[in-house]
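Posting for a labmate who doesn't have an account.
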Amino acid sequence: MRWLVSTVLLLCSVAYGLKDLGAPNWSCDASVMAKSKKVPTSAHSVRFADIKVIGALGDSLTAANGAGAPPGDPLAVILQYRGLAFQIGGDKSLDEHITVANVLRKFNPNLVGASKGIGSENVWEVAHLNMGVPGAESKDIIGQARALVSTMHSHSEINVKEDWKLVNIFIGANDICVYCEDPFFNSTAPHGKTTFENNIITAVKILQDNLPRTIVSLTGMFNMRMLRKIDKKKYFCEGLHTFECDCESNQKFTDDDIQGVCFGYMDGEKDIQNTGLFDNKDDFTFVVQPFFNGILDPPYSSPGVVDMTFFAPDCFHFSAYGHGNIGMHLWNTIVQPVGFKQTSVNLSDPSVGLHCPSTSCPFFPTTKNSKNCAAHFTLSELD
């Protein structure tokens, strides 16, 4: 019954002809589309076609709340349009809608885990391996990591020991939304790390201990200061955000305060990667995709005019078009070597298009193969 309701709601959103962003007829050189001649044993020798399973942890942006909501219907933002989620959505083809899962299905059409339709994280037919929960803070992805491990182990189409898995994480917005209530608790933790950073480490450690052959890709924190630019002279948006994000509407928590905390979270994410904390097992690694880091402004439709088609009716969550746009930039960052990844993109320009993996180093870029690809080079099925 839930699946039927989800399908009906999806058809209704399609009927409204919502703006979207796809990549019609996209493909790359055969040498980078091929899988490895032998299934790799190292996380630093994984070609994109070797990835068989995709999962995701996060909050309402990963659950894609409101992505398919009709314009002017903020109540529809409570609906979780998981099939449109930029990391893992699988409702449409890549021609129609860009998501990382849809791109990976070009490399491996049998990819397992892409979410479909509308519904919550505990409905397999909808969520599949999208564990994102609306309202989640960084502490909550610890439980999501356990749920992801349990779900992977319980489904026979997933060979946990042998299949290569990509787990996407995007978290932090809700931490900012409560930060001003208790900044001391939310900013300090043992060993000089923030609570936010330690929560991510704990979640990823669960994945490392229970999921061999896994690459964790974390989409870097974005600057929540831009919310106030979206709200400017939009009283409807401002009113909604009072309920959705207390600290965003708290004027004592200044623009500089918000930005400073976000930058601190970004630094913490980078620290997890650069210290090599999760490079102690050859079949597991952790990579940050930092394209949000340097973005200070929301997307514009014309100079100074915020492009509201990028957002759901609550002026915060991404619309289908917003998810497609973010999915494009995320993929383009994924294929860039660590140390040379873009730290800012132009959200106002949807014409960038999808990039292809490097022909000289056609593996999922990691901290190790980005420094010395030759040391991790293996043959493809075409060699």
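Reply:
Got it, the structure tokens are right above this. The two ends are 49 Å apart (CA to CA).
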